[in-house]
Amino acid sequence: MTLDEAQQQVDAWIRTYGVRYFSELTNLAVLTEEVGELARVMARRYGDQSFKPGEKDNLEEELADVLWVLICLANQTGVSLTDAFARTLEKKTRRDNTRHLNNPKLKGKSNDGKE
Fold first, then answer.
1. N or C end of the chain: which has fewer CB within 10 A?
2. One CATH from 1.20.5.440, 3.90.190.20, 1.10.287.1080, 3.50.50.60 for 3-81
Protein backbone atom coordinates (compact mmCIF):
# COMPACT_ATOMS: atom_id res chain seq x y z
CA MET A 1 0.00 0.00 0.00
CA THR A 2 1.34 3.43 -0.89
CA LEU A 3 0.99 6.52 1.27
CA ASP A 4 -1.55 7.90 -1.22
CA GLU A 5 -3.57 4.69 -0.97
CA ALA A 6 -3.40 4.80 2.82
CA GLN A 7 -4.66 8.39 2.81
CA GLN A 8 -7.52 7.39 0.50
CA GLN A 9 -8.44 4.36 2.62
CA VAL A 10 -8.46 6.35 5.87
CA ASP A 11 -10.60 9.03 4.23
CA ALA A 12 -13.06 6.41 2.95
CA TRP A 13 -13.22 4.82 6.41
CA ILE A 14 -13.86 8.16 8.10
CA ARG A 15 -16.63 9.02 5.64
CA THR A 16 -18.22 5.56 5.98
CA TYR A 17 -17.84 4.77 9.69
CA GLY A 18 -16.42 7.80 11.45
CA VAL A 19 -19.15 10.33 10.55
CA ARG A 20 -16.49 13.06 10.19
CA TYR A 21 -12.92 13.85 11.14
CA PHE A 22 -12.29 15.09 14.65
CA SER A 23 -11.09 18.68 14.65
CA GLU A 24 -7.44 19.25 13.84
CA LEU A 25 -6.67 20.22 17.43
CA THR A 26 -8.47 17.15 18.77
CA ASN A 27 -6.52 14.95 16.36
CA LEU A 28 -3.28 16.60 17.49
CA ALA A 29 -4.20 15.70 21.08
CA VAL A 30 -5.06 12.14 19.98
CA LEU A 31 -1.71 11.91 18.16
CA THR A 32 0.07 12.99 21.32
CA GLU A 33 -1.84 10.36 23.29
CA GLU A 34 -0.94 7.65 20.76
CA VAL A 35 2.74 8.65 20.79
CA GLY A 36 2.62 8.36 24.59
CA GLU A 37 1.22 4.85 24.30
CA LEU A 38 3.99 4.00 21.84
CA ALA A 39 6.56 5.43 24.26
CA ARG A 40 5.17 3.24 27.06
CA VAL A 41 5.62 0.09 24.99
CA MET A 42 9.10 1.15 23.83
CA ALA A 43 10.20 1.89 27.41
CA ARG A 44 9.08 -1.56 28.48
CA ARG A 45 10.35 -3.51 25.46
CA TYR A 46 13.69 -1.72 24.94
CA GLY A 47 14.17 0.36 28.07
CA ASP A 48 14.56 -0.34 31.74
CA GLN A 49 10.88 -0.74 32.59
CA SER A 50 9.02 -4.04 32.56
CA PHE A 51 5.47 -4.77 31.51
CA LYS A 52 2.89 -4.69 34.27
CA PRO A 53 0.60 -7.71 34.69
CA GLY A 54 -2.04 -7.58 31.97
CA GLU A 55 -0.19 -4.94 29.93
CA LYS A 56 0.24 -5.81 26.25
CA ASP A 57 3.44 -5.70 24.24
CA ASN A 58 1.59 -4.29 21.24
CA LEU A 59 4.28 -2.29 19.46
CA GLU A 60 2.84 -2.90 15.99
CA GLU A 61 -0.61 -1.72 17.08
CA GLU A 62 0.75 1.46 18.67
CA LEU A 63 2.86 2.29 15.59
CA ALA A 64 -0.20 1.81 13.38
CA ASP A 65 -2.32 4.00 15.69
CA VAL A 66 0.23 6.82 15.37
CA LEU A 67 0.22 6.41 11.58
CA TRP A 68 -3.61 6.44 11.47
CA VAL A 69 -3.90 9.76 13.29
CA LEU A 70 -1.02 11.26 11.31
CA ILE A 71 -2.85 10.30 8.11
CA CYS A 72 -6.05 11.85 9.45
CA LEU A 73 -4.21 15.11 10.11
CA ALA A 74 -2.66 15.05 6.65
CA ASN A 75 -6.03 14.43 5.02
CA GLN A 76 -7.84 17.18 6.82
CA THR A 77 -5.09 19.74 6.23
CA GLY A 78 -4.65 18.87 2.54
CA VAL A 79 -1.13 17.46 2.85
CA SER A 80 0.02 14.73 0.48
CA LEU A 81 2.23 12.53 2.62
CA THR A 82 3.82 11.09 -0.53
CA ASP A 83 4.92 14.54 -1.70
CA ALA A 84 5.90 15.73 1.78
CA PHE A 85 7.91 12.59 2.50
CA ALA A 86 9.71 12.81 -0.85
CA ARG A 87 10.70 16.42 -0.05
CA THR A 88 11.89 15.40 3.41
CA LEU A 89 13.97 12.56 1.99
CA GLU A 90 15.56 14.95 -0.51
CA LYS A 91 16.24 17.52 2.25
CA LYS A 92 17.82 14.96 4.56
CA THR A 93 19.95 13.54 1.75
CA ARG A 94 21.17 16.99 0.75
CA ARG A 95 21.81 18.11 4.32
CA ASP A 96 23.07 14.89 5.89
CA ASN A 97 24.67 12.96 3.02
CA THR A 98 28.03 12.77 4.82
CA ARG A 99 27.20 13.96 8.33
CA HIS A 100 26.22 10.57 9.73
CA LEU A 101 28.90 8.69 7.80
CA ASN A 102 31.51 10.90 9.46
CA ASN A 103 30.01 10.76 12.95
CA PRO A 104 32.44 8.85 15.22
CA LYS A 105 29.57 8.20 17.65
CA LEU A 106 27.88 6.03 15.03
CA LYS A 107 30.95 4.06 13.94
CA GLY A 108 31.09 0.43 15.03
CA LYS A 109 27.43 0.17 15.95
CA SER A 110 24.87 -1.97 14.20
CA ASN A 111 21.44 -0.74 13.11
CA ASP A 112 19.98 -1.79 16.45
CA GLY A 113 22.36 0.53 18.32
CA LYS A 114 24.52 -2.25 19.76
CA GLU A 115 28.30 -2.49 19.48
1. C
2. 1.10.287.1080
